[in-house]
Amino acid sequence: MILFLQSLTIAAVTLTFGAHAQNAFSGAVGFGAIATGGNSGTTYHVTNLNDSGTGSFRDAVSASNRNIVFDVGGYIVLNSAVSLSSSITINGQTAPGDGIGIMAGEVSASGKSNIIIRNLRMRQGNLDSDTGKSAFNMGSASNVILDHCSFAYGQWDTVDAVGAVNITVSNSIIAFPIGQQFGAHVETGPSTFYGNLWVSAHNRQPLSKDDTQFINNVVYNYQAAYTSGNTAGYFSHDIINNYFIAGPSTTSASDAYYQMAADQSVYATGNYLDSNKDGVLNGAASNTVGSSTVLSNPWAGTSLGLATLTAAQAVTAVFDNAGASPRDEVDAFAVSTAQSLGTSGKIYTNQASTGLSNGGYGTLTG
């Protein structure tokens, strides 16, 4: 309870879209913004793209209290899942060239705490033979913020956060899950999803079995988008100023809200649904969330302060800014797919079907 109240107090200074001071970094928002990372520890330079050994990413994250920077750009191809330590900061924005990416395996923060990750591309794909793993796993983790990251080709989930406490996923792209074709699964919480672009998933965008802030997101070409499911739990959801846009894979546009039962409490305002797939952003207000109990005020005191953009403004901001920087081939494809506003997109079973270079993973030049 103390930690929960602390997160609310710290997040209360939110004033503008992606621009305010928190513990994690300037501009951090939401419940994960209390993460301290490894900013006060030793700076570790990743000097090669090897799977392991001195100077590798795996070696960099093997010890706590590290502030990790990259002297190289390109893809790190994993031979097995890589496990992070607690109290680390991963600064993907320091990588030269097209930036840094992790492919062919899971990045795991399972059971760890105080982790900050920025501008990192995590793309599992079916080069990972373990179909029970995800692109990023933070199961039972606490105090985690993922900002301006890019997730793609997750097999189990794209982002798995079962049992996670105090997490934020912000300004990121969550696209093209394969396998189960799921976006994100969150349990325990609280969690914040802010300013993200979700593209072409079957479901779980996200699956929220927790108290959630879902603000200024864009969800495109969904079969089911915001989901609570048969949780057997009572949770509260602040769903504010998001835009749901149907695509070729959307069979029922009303499944923008899915399995929202009467045991869930929802504050929904400013959300829009564009259901006609005509290539024009011309949706209508959509704030009736299943049979859930309607809240007259947000459950989280910081939610209205975060929602500085209308749903339409969020579309422009997300298309312009979401994902790791600089924007690479995979993210450009995800954004252009969403920018078709209903006329393009499919749900994939493997990354190669995208037709992108490097077997679908895209090319990162360091």
TrEMBL record:
<keyword id="KW-0479">Metal-binding</keyword>
<keyword id="KW-0732">Signal</keyword>
<dbReference type="GO" id="GO:0046872">
    <property type="term" value="F:metal ion binding"/>
</dbReference>
<dbReference type="InterPro" id="IPR052063">
    <property type="entry name" value="Polysaccharide_Lyase_1"/>
</dbReference>
<dbReference type="InterPro" id="IPR012334">
    <property type="entry name" value="Pectin_lyas_fold"/>
</dbReference>
<dbReference type="InterPro" id="IPR011050">
    <property type="entry name" value="Pectin_lyase_fold/virulence"/>
</dbReference>
<protein>
    <recommendedName>
        <fullName>Pectate lyase C</fullName>
    </recommendedName>
</protein>
<feature type="signal peptide">
    <location>
        <begin position="1"/>
        <end position="21"/>
    </location>
</feature>
<keyword id="KW-0325">Glycoprotein</keyword>
